[in-house]
Design a protein that fits this description.
The protein is mainly α. Helices cover about 80% and strands about 0% of the residues. The radius of gyration is 19 Å and the shape is globular. The chain starts with a helix and ends with a helix. This is AEC family transporter. InterPro entries: Mem_transp_PIN-like, Na+/solute_symporter_sf.
Length: about 300
């Protein structure tokens, strides 16, 4: 019952966002404004305040990264191997990269942050911030570099390939909030009560608006195209990756709270960033779109089990 009380409201808000578009209470374009507020203001405020005021367990960042990104690497390699078996033409190596991205790039911001905080409390912010701080740059860089390697279309230097990604990340509100939160925490100054209350009000809006935005955003994703590819991506993302994360967290002897964050983040369904990557390279656009939609639907069934295990 306790697990249901954690998971059900999260998916109820996602469903509310989807229903709002379905019944034309809001337009599909509302997603842009709500998302911009959530990810440029509210969630950065949530991350900043949580990092500054929360008490964190003493845990090695290398063990956290090792468990989460070790599971991601295992799943990535498995996805590349499975994609090679599914491809009819050997020259479609670029599809394999997008297939791998769709199998590992979870929705850890829109869905992961609200669910982890709801399930594990603000004490989970430490391990959560460690993963968030490197997730986007690492996955985008790995995806771009591997895509450039298999396609061999670009003659520029390595710096010319990764510089645009690094420049975008330097302006990313989530990255800035995490960085500023860590710096301010080290000053030991704390937060003025008025400032703290103001940021807290913004932070309280973060999770609900992110989930509503996710529901609205799901309206444009469809389950169409290569059904087998969609099912395999969902299986890798929702089952294989969290299972690998669970094993690695145990092997690395992580404390229960950090292990719970890692397994929950690993169990998030495929996120919209994987779809953006597919669109950018015009590869497997429909299957990745289907993995986002079907994966989020299936997560309503799989995540209660993962939350129960993580707690």
């Amino acid at each position: 019952m306790a697990t249901l009380l954690i998971v059900a409201p999260v998916f109820a808000l996602i469903a509310a966002g989807y229903a709002a578009v379905l019944f034309r209470f809001v337009s599909e374009s509302a997603h842009k404004g709500i998302s911009e507020f959530a990810f440029s203001i509210a969630i950065p405020a949530l991350l900043f305040r949580t990092i500054v005021v929360s008490e964190f367990p003493d845990v090695s960042p290398y063990r956290v990264w090792g468990a989460y990104y070790g599971a991601l690497a295992i799943t990535w390699i498995a996805a590349l191997a499975i994609s090679a078996l599914l491809r009819k033409r050997r020259e479609d190596s670029e599809d394999g990269v997008v297939f791998a991205i769709g199998s590992v790039y979870g929705n850890i911001v829109m869905l992961g942050i609200p669910l982890v905080l709801s399930a594990l409390g603000v004490e989970a912010a430490g391990p959560m911030a460690l993963i968030l701080s490197v997730n986007t740059p690492l996955l985008w860089l790995c995806g771009i570099l591997q895509m450039e390697f298999v396609s061999r279309k670009r003659a520029g230097s390595l710096l010319s390939i990764i510089w645009p990604v690094l420049a975008d990340l330097a302006r990313n509100p989530l990255m800035l909030a995490i960085g500023l939160g860590v710096i301010w925490r080290f000053t030991g100054l704390g937060l003025n009560p008025v400032v703290d209350r103001t940021i807290e009000l913004l932070a309280q809006a973060g999770s609900p608006t992110a989930l509503i935005a996710l529901g609205i955003n799901l309206f444009r994703f469809e389950v169409k195209g290569e059904k087998l590819s969609i099912l395999v991506m969902c299986a890798l993302k929702l089952a294989a990756m969290p299972a690998a994360a669970f094993v690695l967290a145990r092997l690395l002897d992580l404390p229960p709270l950090a292990a719970g964050v890692i397994v929950l983040f690993a169990a998030m369904p495929t996120g919209a960033n994987a779809y953006i990557f597919a669109v950018q390279y015009q590869r497997l656009v429909n299957p990745v779109s289907g993995a986002v939609a079907l994966g989020t639907l299936l997560a309503a069934v799989t995540l209660p089990v993962v939350v129960w295990a993580a707690k």
